[in-house]
Amino acid sequence: MVCGGRAMAERLTSHPDVAKVDFCGSTLVGQSIRKATAGTGKGITLQMSGKSPNIIFEDADLDGAIEGIMDAIFRNQGQICSAGSRLLVQESIAEKFFAKIRRRMSTIRISTSLDKSIDMSAVLAGTARIQRLVDTARAEGADVWQPDIEIPETGDFWVPTLITNVGPTSTVVQNEIFGPVVAAMTFRDAKDAVELANNQRYGLGSGVWSENISLALDVAHQIRAGMVWVNCYNMFDATGPFGGRKETGYGRQGGQEGLMNYVKPKWMPFDKHDWTERLSDFAAALEKWSTRQFGIIDENDVPFGNPALVVDKSPKLYISGKQVAASSNYVYQCRTPTGEVIGQIAESTSGDVAKAIDAAHKAAPGWAKTAPHMRGQLLFDMAENLSYRVEEFAKRIHIMTGRTMESCTAEVEKAIERLFTYASWADKWGGRVQEVPVYGLTVTVNDPIGVIGIVCPEEYPLLGFVSSFAPAVARGNAVVVVPSEAHPLSATDMFQIFDTTSVPAGVINVVTGGQAQASRVIAAHEDLTMIWHFGDAESAFFVEYLAHDNCKRTWCAHGVQRDWMDNEQGEGLEFLHESVEYKTIWMPAGI
Amino acid sequence: MVQQERNPGMPLDMGFINAIVVNKSATVRRCGELGTRRIVTGDHQLAWLMRAISCMDLTTLKGNDTPMRVFRLCEKAKMPVRQDMIKKLGKSDLTAAAVCVYPARVKDAVRALKGTGIPVASVATGFPSGQTSLKFKLEEIRQAVVDGAEEIDVVISRDKVALAQWTELYDEIRAFREACGAASLKVIMAAGELPTLTHLAKASMIAMMAGADFIKTSTGMEEVNATFPIGMTMVRQIREYYELTGHMVGFKAAGGINDAATALVWLSLIREELGVEWLNSNYFRIGASSLINDIERSLWVGLTGMCAARTYMPLA
């Protein structure tokens, strides 16, 4: 066991003999660890800051809820990442509830940890930061209330603090304080409460207090966090996964879900990479990786020999269910192995990629709410529609790659089979009941992530494409997909299949072009929380590095190529795991 | 709202009104090129976006508005852009122009904005339809002013426009102006419910003759609200009135302005058709609610080059 601050953390985590990092601490330090380990191939779990709300509905057991607030923000001095440092109270009971809190806060006993009759003890790392934030609250016009209770004369003690008369704009509502200070707002109804609860950078926990099961479950489903405690708070057990999303981080601790972060598929080699030289001038390296010359047309280009077999293709992008032209006029050539040109491929700009991400965001909520069975039906339908055109799709792959028709036909048939597989998984991987020591029901729900940016492998132009979007879409995500750079025509041929299958607009978006450029945009986009990258190790470095900015979750191949034809490598648990965010809902019960 | 000299109005001049005529297709063509001929980028765009914020009437007009909801909006009016961004932009005194609410919520807004200098605007006169008696309309205005509203957004009787009852329309607005007293009068044309742009132009001129301090495009609840042809038509009448009388009347666009790019085109329209003197909160307002979120995200892109997450900007 070693001690040290941020510098030690960076040193330890970037050591070549360290294969996995599990970090719990502030978002700031977590981001620096992400940068230091980018592209190395190490597993990384980050559990960082939070600003979790405790939500009190008018039909809650109010006194029970008061004790929940004690658990959430006062015991432990509020110095835990999952602290319920915001309080959302239904307007109809607000006055009564705040009076109850003040009465309860007045009975809190604070002393040194050796005193056997205490509720709260000293805070870690001094009170200066807490003081600063509370002063800021006052300066911004908030009401700051503290009970008149004794604290020891020496030592770092802070009187429990209730801040009211604040809105989402207040500094103390947006930022983690990490002390026994709670910022309270009111709300009208469940819709308001959910909107307020999700209006934050972080996504760690939430408390929901209501005796109405329909209401509690509805709200629990809509909160974008890793933990939801119904009529309780800060319950933990090794059997149940713990962790958050958004800028709280990714990965879970505990449960089988947490174990997934410590294992890798048996067949997968574990290559380590070292990119320290790139770090010395990151900006220049980034430019070199992601910039390329547009629009070089070679006059000596040889057109494809047999026009009867293929018409020269100039596919567009596929955004929001429509084929749209890229906003730049630049294209690059898609060629056969002997160099003949068979297509002009649009170079997507950062604007095109951003537009596709926006389209996916619009579609994501509706798709996530679509009945899982119906999502499955759509993928079955898609497989059917593809099955009518096996020969055509095989021929396309054959012309692009030069592989035998037998091999190409096998690829297309495998793609159809894969669509069937994920159609079947659409409604059979909903989550798990966790056998925790608390009586009631604790369940981990496998929620869609929302929008996933996917950069496809170069190998297997159709199968790689299908194997990439199908698991994500089956599990309720909307996707922005960058197909193979060298062989994108199989993916662009799929636009017609999407149309015929009536894929809801925006659920699948495809942007062609240089993978490095598109990867850069996706990896840096702050309104995206997950990127899959099936490319080379150097690209993985840049993607993981850029992802540090908004603590974006990443799944990178680091140059490991898969045999997509082999079910062990091309589909299954790995893909499903990366398609979801685990939300664990604790519901103690008893009459 | 501070105005240099208030529009006193003038007697109704039907000769002037009868001569007003608008060619729709020419208007539409001119509007089509607005977003293409004046592109603002870089630091200038940041400044324009902040100017747009300073001209915003942050609005909530919902049946389920409560004191708490109004409080939250007022907090946003006081701090429209997140603290760290405002620091980078160096504009710590930036606020919205006003908060706009229903009459029942005026007191809540006044209480929440106390000491900030940000005025409360109240809708009145049977907003949004105006289908109630003149007696009640005037009483509603008076009560809102007593409750502390410094600005009143009234609706005209669209039936009078449809039936070309121009004198009655003039008289009605004149009465509204008297009931306002010292409070500033914004007259809502509800342009989406008027037969033609020519009708809109005539009604706009009549409103100004009757003493409007601002003319406003719409309630935000018509099927069609603040489009550029509607705005262009009204703004041209403001210019005509200025040339006729020397008095500046303000313009407010409300409803359907959802993104920063559109807001920038509105600023450009005002600048081109009326001039820089109109491009401040004394003479130009945008009535909006979710627009502030998009402008805030655009400021973030301008400051950092990054596309921000929607949930990162504090709710209005």
UniProtKB/TrEMBL annotation, chain A:
Molecular functions (GO terms): oxidoreductase activity, acting on the aldehyde or oxo group of donors, NAD or NADP as acceptor
Domain Aldehyde dehydrogenase: 1-267, 335-559
Keywords in alphabetical order: Oxidoreductase
Pfam families named among the record's database cross-references: Aldedh
Highest taxon listed in the record's lineage: Eukaryota
The protein, known as: Aldehyde dehydrogenase family
Organism: Carpediemonas membranifera
TrEMBL record, chain B:
GO cellular component: cytoplasm
GO terms assigned for molecular function: deoxyribose-phosphate aldolase activity
GO biological process: carbohydrate catabolic process; deoxyribonucleotide catabolic process; deoxyribose phosphate catabolic process
Pathway: Carbohydrate degradation; 2-deoxy-D-ribose 1-phosphate degradation; D-glyceraldehyde 3-phosphate and acetaldehyde from 2-deoxy-alpha-D-ribose 1-phosphate: step 2/2
Record's protein name: deoxyribose-phosphate aldolase
Domain of life: Eukaryota
Keywords: Lyase, Schiff base
EC identifiers of the protein: 4.1.2.4
Pfam family, one: DeoC
Family stated for the protein in its record: Belongs to the DeoC/FbaB aldolase family. DeoC type 2 subfamily.
Record field: catalytic activity: 2-deoxy-D-ribose 5-phosphate = D-glyceraldehyde 3-phosphate + acetaldehyde
